[in-house]
User: Fold this.
Amino acid sequence: MGLQALMATRAQVLQLFGRIERLSGQVDEAFGGQAFMRNAGGPASPANRRRFNAYADCLEKVSGLLWDAIVLWALTCGVKLEDDWTPMVIYMDREAKARANANRGAAKV
Assistant:
């Protein structure tokens, strides 16, 4: 049942990736993608410091959720925690850059 159970778990992890992506979008929407308010007296003002800290905290939590989901995905693919994860991270980075470049090219058309 091991491999079949991992396949079923992957579907759940994919749903988790989608939820994390939507949550990230909602955080950006809530803050308007801006860490600082323009009319609050500069980045050192108390209001802007509170806003920045709140925004950074939200992004940190979303990043933590994303990392947890990546670990779960890797485990369902058979990667062990003791394995060297460096090649996987480099591969994921290359894929992300390729997708970003493809999206930029599509936006220019």
